[in-house]
Each structure stands twice: as structure tokens, then as C-alpha cells.
Specification:
Elements lengths: L2 H15 L5 H7 L5 H32 L4 H20 L10 H7 L6 H10 L2 H13 L2 H24 L1 H39 L7
Helix pairs in contact: 1-7, 1-8, 1-9, 2-9, 3-6, 3-7, 3-8, 4-7, 4-9
Length: 211
Amino acid sequence: MDWTYAARTLAGLLAILNPLGAIPVFISLTMGWDAATRMRTARIAAVATGLVLSTAALAGDRILAFFGISIAAFRVGGGILVLLMAIHMMQAKRSGARQTPEETEAAAEKDSVAVVPLAIPLLAGPGAISTVILNAHQTRGFLGFVMLGGIIWLMAGAVYLALTAAVPLARRLGVLGINITTRILGLLLAAIAVEFIADGLKELFPLLAGG
């Protein structure tokens, strides 16, 4: 088992999910709710996030094959999307690729916001799904998929912990603390995105790799 690859995958998913960055949205959407309802919403959001990403890991290659998309092209496209999200994170802004203001306003009027927009697209958005599909393509063997699945559900657990502790965390970290964390994760995510793009370009244009 490649522990270096596992650590890189873990860091990439942590950066792109950014559970701490979801705290302000979670608090605003559940304003006035009792603690039990908030915990149930956090649990549903975490499970939905894990299910969406697990499905992407298992069926991603088949979906790409169905549409005739090569993994190299998907690497470049997914890398660009992740890079755009990373740039927004480094500016402490929420990317429109994850959630639009209109979606936030519409969600505030719903009884349940756990699946939409918290799980989709706030947490398990296009960037996270792209990252999982690309990592699943690089995974080899049964143990590799087990490892990837474990990482996905570990991140779902991190989402649950962050959302259930949203109020005290927001009080302790404040806007400044959350913004600093988001910027650091954005920098890490930008580096991962550049690697995705570079690997995809080398596959599409072998001359770039000296082949």
C-alpha cells in the first residue's frame, strides 16, 4: 500500500472539502434550529457527502467512458476547475462552482438543507467529484479502492465533526481564523490542481514529457 499516495489523497480531499469553510453557511442555514435538529442535519449532510463521493469513485471511469472522455482530458478539465476553486479559497471567497447565491437563498426557505445545498454542491461539488474520479483512476487493486473508500468516509466523518461543532468552532476561530485556514488549504489545493493539469497535458501531448 502506497502511504505517500494515501497521504496526498487525504490532503487533497481535506483541502477541497474544507469542512471549516462550510461552517458559516451551515450556521446561517440552520439559524434558530435546536441542537438536535442541527446534529441530525450535520449527520445527513456527512452521509450524503460520503455516498456521492463513493459513487464517483466506483462509477467515475464508466461515466467518462460512456461520454467518450479520456482520463487525460478529464485531468486537465478537472485540474482547471480545482485550480479556480483554489484561487477563490486563497482570496477567502466561496467559489460559484460550488454554490451560487441563488442556491443559498432558495435553500434557506426549505425545511431540510442537509443534502442540497450542504452536501451537494457545497461539500461534494464538481471539484471534489473530479478529484475522487482522478484518484480512483490511479488506484490499483482491491486494497487501493478500500484505502480510497476509507479516506472518503474519514473525510465524511470530519465533515460531521465540523458541522456538529459549528457554533463553538465559529465562536473560537472567528471569521479571521476560518479565512486563514481556507487560504492555507487553497494554496495546497492549487499545487495539487497544477499537478493534475500537468499530468493530463503530458498524456495528451507526449512531447511535453520528452516522449
